[in-house]
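Summary for the steering committee. The consortium agreed at its last meeting that each partner would contribute one worked example illustrating the joint modelling workflow. Our contribution is presented below. We chose a case with several input lines so that the handling of multiple components could be demonstrated. No manual editing was applied between input and output; the record is shown as generated.
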Amino acid sequence: MAEQTQILKVENLHTWFRGDGRIARAVDGVSFTINKGETFALLGESGCGKSVTSLSIMRLVPEPGGKIVQGRVNLHGQDLLQLPETQMRDVRGSRIAMIFQEPMTSLNPVLKIGEQIEETAVRHKTLKEGQTARQKAIELLNAVGLPDAQRRYSEYPHQLSGGMKQRVMIAIALAGDPELLIADEPTTALDVTIQSQVLQLLRELQGETHMAVMLITHDLGVVAEMADRVAVMYAGQIVEQADRETFFKAPKHPYSIKLFESLPNRTKRNQRLAVIQGSVPSLATEFKGCRFEPRCQFAIEDCKNNVPVWQSFDELGEETGVLCHRFDPRFESQFSEPVQKIFDAVAQSDDPVTTRGFKELLKVNELKVHFPIQKGLFKRTVGHVRAVDGVSIDIPQGKTLALVGESGCGKTTVGKGILQLISPTAGSVNLDNEELTNLAKHQMRQRRKDIQIIFQDPFSSMNPRMMVADIIEEGMVAQRVGGDKQKRQTRIDELLNQVGLSPEVKYRYPHEFSGGQRQRICIARALAVEPKLIICDEPTSALDVSVQAQILNLLKELQDKFGLAYLFITHNLSVVEYLAHNVAVMYLGRIVETGTVEEVLENPLHPYTKALLSAVPQVDIDSERKVIRLRGELPSPANPPVGCHFNPRCAKAWQECRNGYPSARSVSPTHSVRCYLYQEN
Amino acid sequence: MKAFGPYIKLILALILIVFSAVGIAQHTDVQLKVLWTDALVYLLVIALLLFAIQAKSKEHLRGPWRHIARRRIAMSAMVVLMFYVAVGLLDSVHFRKALERQAGQTQVHYSGEVLSLLDVVATALRERQETTYSAPFATHAYTKEMLEVDGRQVRDFPRLNYGGAHLNNPEEDKLSDIVANSSIALLEALLTSAFFFYILSVVLARNRKTSVREQAIQILRFRTELPWMIMFLTFMVLLLCVFLIINLSTKYHVFGTDKVGQDVLYLALKSIRTGLVIGTLTTLIMLPFAVMLGIMAGYFRGWVDDVIQYIYTTLNSIPGVLLIAAAVLSLQVYMENHPEMFETLIDRTDMRLLFLCIILGITSWTGLCRLLRGETLKVSQVDYVEAATAFGVRHFNIMTRHILPNVMHIVLIAVVIDFSGLVLAEAVLSYIGIGVDPAMISWGNMINSARLEMARDPIVWWSLAAAFVFMFVLVLAANLFSDAVRDAFDPRVSRSQ
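What follows is the complete predicted structure of the assembly.
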């Protein structure tokens, strides 16, 4: 390892932001090196300074608020921070390139994608002898695996899907032949199957060009799959650095340990997830001790008053080390329990989920939601988007059904259709033996207290102009539950206690809370009307891992306590494994496989389910898995493929698959699949 | 109960004001006369007070205002605006004086002349009428007349009845007299502002719990959180103007006189109310339409949206001036045919002013309506609106509790930006003869009459100049203030300082 050539060496980097009379130390003393051909992963939760680190390397820190106040960024021994701006422009794009999280907004919508690639290639003079810019662009489009590059060259960004746009972004980044590629959350906005395609592409390109990749991510699974070395960032500092094997086998910093423990999966099913109490401290505070100390379970008195010193473990490889007092020889003796033991002790099990009697609560039969496509002056209907096209699901009381699928498959529409927020085109929604689709508006309004919804984005799901108490009270007033004004106030206090917030917060506004706290308020709001069913529309996907664990614990606890049923809409399969009892996998408006969580996740039958499961990056680095890569992307529900909707992407498709949509085949009383590969037994 | 505290105080204060006004009226032999526009102005003031009380307890409303309060130019502009508003409000309290009782009369008869408080304050200006034009600070008329000097008939400029009448030797004494009076005004202004400065320091010191001296130093060094020093300096300049006018206008016609010998300064001051009424009442009248229809179109969509869009697109495609001309001219004909409907002249001019506000409102609500429709389309897609629907909250409640507060910033920005445009619109419309009643004093009418004055030789420029200065200051202050309001309330403008 040591003989590898260093490309980038960052030393003691400090980037501060000034504003409102305070200084936010977004990056506060970060050092690392990146070698040729390796993948260096910077791991951390939102707001810990990962992106600012990468922007500092590129010297793109937003002025005038932000400033690099100290440090060196050496690219092949040349300090980038000393370069004049004109020379820096030659570095950006040609020696260090960057791809961003949001492929939708990183491309210029009015330029052809080919022109956007050419721009970089021409600017950095990477055209080979006798090669036109166009040839170079097409070569790059081929290299990133974009099918039909000749035609794609003259298309505009809106004509491409998210995954293709990210490929184009990579092509632009490659156009300057960079030595280092900074990938800032390159796959976070993409679906798992597309994510695995893009990660695979990055790996292949790295193999061909031997460029170094700096991967910024919050996803431990992606790190496990891609990284050679890992650095964990917390509150503006790197708290642990190690190579992949060392890190995943034995994480050392308490924060890293907790991150692993808070990941949901099946083995933790009947336990509470470990949570990291509290939240990331404000970077504007002056730290006197360890930044993680208030949230750390190992913390001792000395952690509060002494700034931790970097402890390196050279025997474990270059630059390996940890920023923690427990490994500092001066304090080591004061920690009573050895690390490993505590690690095990945490994983003790809590009481298991009590299984209640099976009483059907919700029965959805052949639900269809079609949106008309209207064209022309008189808004003639020329077709339909079949967002939901015949979905049947059952949810028993007190159970959780997970609805799994990629974005655009119609899973959110199912939720809204059940809630009658969108009136279904056909089919029945039966709650407690009452048909909801036939109810008149005022009848439905009275029934609304039985079904509630929790949204994905905790920032837009509460009216910013209302106080927490008013937000929670609104449903109670509308549904006339909770008695008079006095009783409602007591109930609000009780609800806030139940979701783990103190009742004092009720006179505050939503913007004063963090994402996790907001999601708790949303849960309290839903609980206020005592619903039987809560539709959770990706309630944790906007949250950090440690906060996600808190919310999942809360949801599970409430289910045990009140016998709530959940329809859990998600794309995150590890959450499904942890929380769900039953799973339904959705593809292009239809359910392709349904069964208990054990049946579907351990013995997936439908090729799509198999591919979906295999594409999820695993934290366990020893697991041998073969990723089934799907061809292409999700077709449009306005114009679904003939026959089985999955057949154009299916590796096992045969003639019959194009003839008609397969009917449901039961494999066991609970497990059924819609695929021609299986016969009814 | 706690939440109603401020409202109760406000209601008590209003009752007190009404009773004292009635009491004063009874004991001084005057009859209060509430014109239509007066009533609406009072309504607007009450609405603003209620809004201010509400805003005080809501952070999302208070925050932006606090931001505005820290901006120097905006606060300076606000002081100027407050001055205009004070004059406008003084001019909005109308009454009729009782006539002297004739022998054998049992009933009290009231004068046909409706006066306002401003008229009383400016009695000196109002009653010192010359025969015709005179230039600012003139002692002699602007046109020659046949005069009898020493028994001879001479054609010369006659002395004015009031302007500089106290001077025996106008040619020599005028300048020194003006300088002397101005110096007195300056002295008075300095003394008064020193007094006000002391009061300000005491009040602030009490709030901050510091000593008065310390607080005064803080203000002088621009160290206070709100730009008190800037506000105070603006106030001082205004105070100086007021004292100059008080001292000089009783002896001269500071802005000259118009064709019938009325003091132009008096006209300009009376025009303030007309301008403010047009600028504010028009908005007050159009707001309900714009807000209700805009939110309904954006929220319900479908056919409701189609109908509302159709209405405002149609309305928008008719040239605004044409619509206003048609409405105002037909109103004029109607009023001339029914003179019995209006007791006094001022009733008639007031009714026409109100109709002008209404017709301006009708032609100008479409812009705000379209903005609100767009914003509502966006807001009603947000999760919290869906959550409210999932709770079975009624449409009306969703629109008032969830959508209106979240589009309110647009309304506020539109109102303050429209204000100056409307003040200017009045001038333009009156100029082409379809604005306020010709008998009503307004900047537009002053400019309209200036058309002829500018054509005569030697030209009479002071009417136009006075209207220009007063209007310019008002519109400039309003624009500066509205800039600050837009910056503070527009979510797209980041407020990092």
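The CA atoms of residues 286 and 361 of chain B lie 5 Å apart. Residues 130-249 of chain B form one domain.
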